Amino acid sequence: MNVAVPRRIKLFVWGGVASFVLAVVAVAVTLILNARQVALADSASGANRFVSSAESALNRSLLAVDVLLASMDEMLELSGARPEWLDPEVASQRLRSSARQNLMVRYVALLDTQGRVFASSDAAGASLSVSLPAGFAASVFEQPVSMLMVSAPAVSFVSAERVLYLARQMRLVDGTQMLAVAEVPVSALAGVLTQGMDIAGLQVTLERAAGQALLTMPRQEDALARSLAPPLADLDVLGPAWQARARLSGALALVVYRPLMYQDLRIAASVPRDDALAAWRSTRDGILLTTLGFVVMMVLVGAVSMRYLDRMTQARLAIAHSKATLDEALESMVSGFVLLDSQMRLVQWNRRFEEIYPWLKGQLAAQVPFRELLMEKARHHLDNASAEEQLRWVEHRVAVQRNPQGPHEQGLPDGRVIQVTERATPDAGLVITYHDVTELRRASAEIENLAFYDPLTGLPNRRLLMDRIQQTVAASARSGLHGALLFLDLDHFKTLNDTLGHEVGDVLLRQVAQRLKACVRTEDTVARLGGDEFVIMLKNLATSSEEAASLARRVGEKILRRLNMPYALGAHTYHSTPSIGATLIGLDMQPPTDLLKQADIAMYQVKSQGRNSLCFFDPQMQIAINQRVQLENDLQLAITGSQFELHYQPQQRLDGRIVGVEGLIRWRHPERGLVAPGQFIAVAEESELIVPIGHWVLRTACAQLAAWKGDARYQHVQVSVNVSARQFRQRDFVARVVEVLRETGAQAHLLKLELTESLVLDDVDDTIAKMVQLKTKGVRFSVDDFGTGYSSLAYLTRLPLDQLKIDQSFVRNLGAKQTDDVIVQTIIGMARNLELDVIAEGVETAEQRDTLARYGCHYFQGYLLGHPMPVQELEALLARDPAAAGLEA
Question: Which of 80, 470, 776, 805 has its CA 20 to 30 A from that of 519?
Fold first, then answer.
């Protein structure tokens, strides 16, 4: 007999389908409208971000040119000169040096009021032909104050490309007006803007407030010849967003603009509405198709649901509710379930029990003695055991079931762990549950492993190692047997990570761990402390300390041999060496931290002696470390106690004229007397005390320059100071130098900062950025010890240098080592081509000076010319010998 589905249920189902369809349609409409708003908002946001970024980029670019033009006053000393005092050739040379720092500028030039070129950075110098747009020069000279002016686009007479002229007026001491001009290709400014043009359909214009177009992107030559309408200022009253007209195409668009910091310039971005909504249309079509699919699917679901409800109604009358309820309860259990009667025969079980023990599935049947199942378990679990051993296991399980003692665990051959719980029933039967606790046990093991073992190599970590050392120390005190600790560090491991990557470094560490474990006994411990540091603890070596040390050395030498063998790191074959420090675990109950420290000290002794060796801890090493710590403390006191002095070594030209000095620090210790830099600079570098020390040297040198400024005998002398890598890499280095110059009143062009090749190459971009900032202030730069590195030549042309300093190691071998002569000649020739000065340091003989002069070097520094001396002796030297002091007769 068929039973119809009630009408109320049908209405409920179809009503639900209709409601869902309406909801889907409403959501689709909402999504489409929201997507449209989001598309417009994203385009507007992108346009605003672009204009903001373009504004900053153009302001920086124009400011850089403005600074370049404004600096011509100080560079050429225009405000204190008359026209007849200026040398066009010297002025052109200085302009060329300055213009190289700004890649946007084609050239800079100095023009008089008649438009004649007085000097320029171009190779043509004063003969350069400059054709400014009509009236531009006059408008610049008409300005009441000197300010940067930008011309209309023009075509360069030399390159035939579109250019803009940026100019600023200058006044000489007699009131004569001069015009500082920079030619900037329009393409250079366009290059500044293209970095952010990732918006579909974006149109960019650089224009004046009145609408005159200076730059367009995409490029439109006709736009440069006309004024764009309406003016940008009128856009604010044209109505809501997306109702304006694009500046180039005229289509409906969003137009965003911002004023620049110079001469009523505006940067504008136009996003046509059609371009902004292009991606939205695809999204809209997709949403419509998806909505249609959902509507069709809902109708089908409704039809299927009605058919399903019809069948369920027919079947409902035939289901035995009690049996279904019991079976559902058993099958929903996450644990296996077995019910035995008083005779220990199988009554009921669930599917989870079959999943846990699939090999019993064929024997599961009502009233089967559970003993038979236990026999089958024994044959499966103990397949390697004898029949007698299997029978004993079964008898033990039967005996336990008569008196259940609580949960116990069974390990299955496939690695799973099952927790078995047995409970008696009121009718003397038994309920047994089987719960899979494999993941729980694995998690517990993993937690323990993470707490005590290194996850990369599987070796014990520091925590477990310290515990084992503590136990070994206590055991040694009881047994009288010495042990040993070997502290191992891989040489040059950081270089491997930096060149081939950390993944390859991890492969090496795992292979090292395997080799170390193969070199020791099972009762010994190999641990990884972190990075490339390993510790090997050797137990129970010998009662005699000498014999224990000998055995430990044998193990260490074995490790050295094994770790010196090549490693196969994927496609790379790598050779690595270790440095090993060793100390004995004796009978005096030393703390584990002290033992590790001793082995670590011994390891660093190996590092200092050349690596790839083994060294035992010696108390003298601790004494050396204590002395180093004392030296650091003394340096701290020296900084606060004004114990440093600055000595000066003269730098002379070939004719004997002293053109500069190098400031060299000396430490007047209250007990040790005068301490040379070689005895404390390295410690200052490693302890970071070099930063305040370097700042003291810089401030002292600048203060001396300021003191000489008013004295005609010394005011021409340049002072060079060395800058350490740590000091130069400080974020506020440029700001601190500028602050010192301002506070002391020293002239920036007389200060020369000496940088080493390694410092320059460490981070070339950061180096160039800081040098350029200081060069704009007038500070000069020299590369110290030039020639000792081999990779710096590729960057030499990028660095805003003034001087190269030939390392004394090459000067020392002149005439004795032919390769050094060739290197010196190469450096001098290179510097000449790059218009850089060259000075040789370490000149100790007249033969060296004459050889260098013959090669083209005209500046010298060394003991032949003078030792480093206090400022009083230097001033006496300059005052005593006018020729040496560089004074004109």
Answer: 470
Any idea what DSSP says for residue 238? S
Choose among 685, 684, 692, 700: nearest CA to 634.
Answer: 684
Dihedrals φ, ψ of 244, to 5°?
A: -80, 175
pLDDT digits (tens, 9 = 90+) for 721-762: 999 888 898 899 999 999 999 999 999 999 999 988 777 777
| Tokens standing for residue 727 | 């000091």
Task: Give the 3-state secondary structure of residue 868.
Answer: coil
Three-state DSSP at 52 gives: helix
DSSP character at residue 37: H
Question: Which CA distances in Å does 55 have to 52, 190, 245, 255?
Answer: 5, 13, 21, 15
Note the Cα 826 to chain centre separation in Å: 36
Cross-strand partners of 487:
535, 581
DSSP 3-state of 382 = coil
Residue 545's alpha-carbon distances to 303, 551, 594, in angstroms, are: 91, 10, 18
Q: How far apart are CA 555 and CA 300, in angstroms?
A: 78
Cβ(221)–Cβ(232) below 8 Å? no
* Kind of pairing between the strands at 107-112 and 117-120: antiparallel
How does pLDDT run across 97-107, given as a tens digit for each residue? 888 888 889 88
Biggest CA pair distance of the chain: 134
CA 69/CA 77 separation, integer angstroms? 13
Question: Per the structure block, which two tokens stand in for 150?
Answer: 């930008």
pTM over 0.85: no
Hey, what are 343's tokens? Answer: 């005779």
Residue 724 is classified by DSSP as: -
User: Can you give the C-alpha Rg of the chain in angstroms?
Assistant: 43
Whole-number Å distance between alpha carbons of 529 and 148: 62
Give the residue-averaged pLDDT of 347-362.
Answer: 71
Residue type, 320: A
Do residues 217 and 198 make contact, with C-beta atoms less than 8 angstroms apart? no
- The token pair at 792 is 């710096």
In angstroms, the CA 602 to CA 621 distance is: 7
Neighbours of 49 (CB within 10 A): 14
Which pLDDT tens digit goes with each residue over 572-629? 889 999 999 999 888 777 889 888 998 998 888 888 788 898 888 876 655 666 677 7
Token pair for residue 404? 């259940």
Reading the block at residue 652, the tokens are 């002379």
Classify residue 534 by burial, with Cβ atoms within 10 Å: 0-12, 13-18, 19+: buried
106's CB contacts (< 8 A; 6+ apart) are 156, 159, 163, 182, 183, 184, 185
Asked if residue 133 lies in contact with residue 152, where contact means CB atoms within 8 angstroms, the answer is yes
* Residues near 292 by beta carbon (within 8 Å), at least 6 away in sequence: none
Tokens matching residue 725? 């890598």
DSSP-derived 3-state class of residue 837: strand
Give dist(CA 560, CA 81) in Å, integer: 74
How many Cβ atoms are within 10 Å of 572's Cβ, its own excluded? Answer: 13
**Residue 502 to residue 489: CA distance in whole angstroms:** 17
CB burial of residue 652 (10 Å; 0-12, 13-18, 19+): buried
Which two three-digit tokens encode residue 648?
A: 């000066």
Give the alpha-carbon dihedral of 475, 476, 480, 482, to 10 degrees.
150
**651 DSSP assignment:** E
Q: Measure the CA–CA gap between 480 and 482, rounded to whole angstroms.
A: 7
Report the 3 state secondary structure along 384-423.
Answer: CCCHHHHHHHHHHHHHHHHCCCCCEEEECCCCCEEEEEEE
Task: Return the closest-CA partner of residue 177 out of 133, 134, 146.
Answer: 146
Q: Rounded to whole angstroms, how far apart are CA atoms 299 and 305?
A: 10
